[in-house]
Amino acid sequence: MDGFVFAGWVVRIPEVKAQVGAAPAALGLALLGVSGGAVATMTVTGRLCRRFGNHPVTIGCGLVLALGVALPPLTHSAAALGCVLLVFGAGYGGLNVAMNAAAVDLVVALRRPVMPGFHAAYSFGGLAGAALGGLLAPHLSPERHLLLLAAVALAITVAAGRVLLRHPLPAAGPAPAAAPDGPRTRTDGGEAWRNVRWLVVTLGLVAMCDSYGEGAMADWGTLHLSGDLGAGAGLAAAGYAVFALAMAIGRLAGSAALERFGRTRVLVVGALAASAGMLVAALAPVTWLVIAGYAVTGLGIANIFPAAIARAGTLGGANGVALASTFGYGGMLLGPPAIGFIAQGAGLPVALTTVAALAAVAALIAFAVRGADRGGGVGRGGGAARTPEG
What are the residue boundaries of the Major facilitator superfamily (MFS) profile domain, all occurrences included (predicted)? Predict the structure, then answer.
């Protein structure tokens, strides 16, 4: 539902822009409302989850997102659009923290690294939302389309909410402390959080390097194909679709990869593959090589964000998810404008090489902290499953 609703809003941005009569600069500031509302809400959501529980907060944020998506087509100025997008962004950011925290609880309960599967659902929801939006755009106004999305999102939230409220799970808290000669034992409180906060921040930096690339690809991937290589609109759109589909498929296989190879290998190899793929995509002179590079990049970055967020959650609970997510989505906020600024002076191909550079940085960070992060993929101690750390 999250990916479906967000993609449905994105495909109607051009019509909403025309409705509010915003210049490109004004529209850009208004669109920052989504990211601003999301990032500002994330740390607050972590505290709400600790107080009220992950499942109730997930439901509440889902309701805010569902209602918020109906608001943009009701505005008639850039300022009003920016204000309602703050509400939409707050629901989007809060839901991402709350449901990731709830997913971490399930990962811990199952003792299996199933987080990538949840993120695959987000990716496929985004693909479905974009496809349906493209089909409905010629026949429905943005107001009716987004009102329909709001109704669908409300129905899903209510249906899912009934299940979540009936099945609460014990919250994953700060990581257990390692005993010198025995199994890991649970410690709670501020000291435990202080002990793991630096590692949660490090995982957040890994997620930020990943989401920088996701944001850059969403905003600039098609423009690179059309503007630098002269691809037609359909082929340029297909290039981004290949990237998104490769990422979704990679996430479907993510749980099996994490169980077989361990988190460190998945992060390092994935980030290096994304770096190589994006370097080819940025500098290749022919369209088919660029699209192939997009596919490799999508496969490489597929499991970096979910693996980093899942580990942050097992270390720090909802606070860990909130802190790492703030870094991660901050990268998505930073990526598109940073690419644009660099492209202004050096050209878009050179600007896109920063995606490759940050993916390589993510690989270095993941490799550097492999010893500190050796506590297994999902375990909380007491017989929890461990994943091999390469």
Answer: 1-374
Is residue 55 over pLDDT 90? yes
Rounded to whole angstroms, how far apart are CA atoms 55 and 98?
A: 7
Query: How many other C-beta atoms can be found within 10 angstroms of the C-beta atom of residue 218?
Result: 17
Indicate whether 213 pLDDT > 90. no
Structural domains in the chain plus CATH codes: 1-172 (1.20.1250.20), 186-378 (1.20.1250.20)
Tell me the backbone φ, ψ of residue 387, rounded to 5 degrees. Answer: -105, 145
Tokens of 278: 């994006």
**What does the mean pLDDT of the chain come to?**
83
With 0-12 / 13-18 / 19 or more C-beta atoms within 10 angstroms meaning exposed / middle / buried, residue 233 is exposed
Segment 328-342, tens digit of pLDDT: 887 877 777 788 888
| Buried-state track 279-314, b at ≥16 Cβ within 10 A, e below 16 | bbbbebeebeebbbbbbbbbbbbbbbbbbbbbbbbb
Query: Is it the case that residue 357 has pLDDT exceeding 50?
Result: yes
What is the SS3 string spanning the chain? CHHHHHHHHHCCHHHHHHHHCCCHHHHHHHHHHHHHHHHHHHHHHHHHHHHHCHHHHHHHHHHHHHHHCCCHHHCCCHHHHHHHHHHHHHHHHHHHHHHHHHHHHHHHHHCCCCHHHHHHHHHHHHHHHHHHHHHHCCCCCHHHHHHHHHHHHHHHHHHHHHHHHHCCCCCCCECCECCCCCCCECCCCHHHHHHHHHHHHHHHHHHHHHHHHHHHHHHHHHHHHHHHHCCCHHHHHHHHHHHHHHHHHHHHCHHHHHHHHCHHHHHHHHHHHHHHHHHHHHHCCCHHHHHHHHHHHHHHHCCHHHHHHHHHHHHHHHHHHHHHHHHHHHHHHHHHHHHHHHHHHHCHHHHHHHHHHHHHHHHHHHHHCCCCCCCCCCCCCCCCCCCCCC
What number of other Cβ atoms are within 10 A of residue 152's Cβ?
18
